[in-house]
Every structure is written in structure tokens, then in C-alpha cells.
Write a structure and sequence with these properties.
- The chain is built from nine helices and four strands.
- It is α/β, with parallel strands linked by helices.
- It has one domain: Rossmann fold (3-Layer(aba) Sandwich), CATH 3.40.50.
- Strands 1-2-3-4 form a four-stranded parallel beta sheet, sandwiched between helices.
- Helix 1 packs across helix 2 and helix 4 runs antiparallel to helix 6.
- The longest helix has 16 residues.
- The protein is globular and about 50 Å long.
């Protein structure tokens, strides 16, 4: 596995089961960045579900989800940014930058980029599963996110019953990097409220 963790294109069923056993043995909170929570998606792929299904599956009760820049559907402008990322990867030092975080930056980048730019991917949508989430959700989105708009978290709030939204100014697709203090404080408040219940 890479330093960044599991990569959806390179994970065996045995590795997936190991991750799920680890999740079952740890506190029941899930934090994700963008598509980062695909660890649970690997387990539910045969049902075409995503992070929302782990949180609403009943497999093991989850006390809360913190989602940073989540995606529940594909937006056309995000695909434009992903096409630009492909160009940047081919013509700039983006590969070297990613190598600081990934043992195999080509696998990490092309696994993400090729999926998002696949001709069938614009139809990807997990909104129908959001109503299954029974635990509280803190969904954060940057106003300057190059891959998704506020529509992403607003759709979560429209479908899931207990959602708190945090719309971040001066923030792109990496809230934890662009607004670390705000993200840490919001996450701490959210977790502390869950612990006090």
C-alpha cells in the first residue's frame, strides 16, 4: 500500500477485508476527504454504493461522519478541472509533488483521473443512498473547490436527516490544508457533541 493509504484500483479483496476488520475494531467515526472514503466503497462496490452506505448500512453503527469536499454526483465543471489536472500531470512537476505522498504517483493519479474521465462516469450518483445515513454528518465544502460546488453538500443535507454544513471561504478542494484551524475546530466540536451523547 502507498503512504497515502489504499488505492481503489490496487486493493485486493483480502486487503479490503483487513481494512473493514480494522474499522470494526476502532471507534465508530468516519472522516473522509473527497473520494478518500472509498475504502468503504470497495466493500460495497458490488452494490454500487459509496461512503454513505457504510454510514447507513447497519453493519456497525457509526456515531458520526465528517466529510470534507465530498462528492455525491458528478458536476460538469469538475470534469473540466480534472481534464486540466491530467494536462498538468503530463506537463508540470505535479508527479513529483504527488510522489511526496504516494509510493506510486502514477497509480494514484491515473487511477483517480481515468475513472473520473471515463465516458460512463458522468452518470455516477449516490444520492439515492443518502437517506440511509442515520448518524449525524458534518459536511464541509470550500467555496473555491475546483472539483465540486456547494451543491454537493447541499444535496447531502437535502437527503440525509442530520447534516450540519460548513461552507468555507478562501478554500479549495483541501479544506484541511486551506483552512486547517477552522476544520480542526469544527471537527472537534462535532466529535465532542457525539461523545457527550
Amino acid at each position: 500500500m502507498s503512504k497515502a493509504g489504499l488505492h481503489r484500483m490496487k486493493v485486493s479483496p483480502a486487503e479490503t477485508e483487513s481494512v473493514l476488520r480494522l474499522l470494526a475494531a476502532t471507534p465508530r467515526r468516519i472522516a473522509s476527504l473527497s473520494q478518500g472514503i472509498e475504502i468503504s466503497n470497495l466493500h460495497f462496490r458490488r452494490r454500487q454504493d459509496s461512503w454513505s452506505v457504510y454510514a447507513g448500512s447497519g453493519i456497525r453503527p457509526v456515531s458520526g461522519v465528517i466529510a470534507l469536499a465530498p462528492h455525491v454526483m458528478v458536476e460538469g465543471f469538475g470534469l473540466v478541472s480534472i481534464r486540466q489536472a491530467r494536462e498538468n500531470y503530463l506537463t508540470t512537476n505535479l508527479k513529483q509533488k504527488l510522489a511526496r505522498y504516494h509510493d506510486d504517483p502514477d497509480s494514484a493519479f491515473w487511477g483517480w483521473n481515468n475513472i473520473w474521465l471515463h465516458p460512463d462516469f458522468p452518470a455516477w450518483n449516490i444520492e439515492e443512498y443518502l437517506s440511509r445515513i442515520s448518524c449525524p454528518v458534518l459536511a464541509m465544502q470550500g467555496e473555491d473547490d475546483e472539483y465540486g460546488t456547494m451543491e454537493q453538500i447541499e444535496r447531502i443535507a437535502d437527503k440525509a436527516p442530520r447534516v450540519e454544513l460548513l461552507k468555507l471561504i478562501d478554500c479549495g478542494h483541501s479544506p484541511h490544508r486551506d483552512q486547517p484551524e477552522v476544520v480542526i475546530q469544527a471537527a472537534a466540536r462535532f466529535v465532542n457533541r457525539r461523545l457527550s451523547i
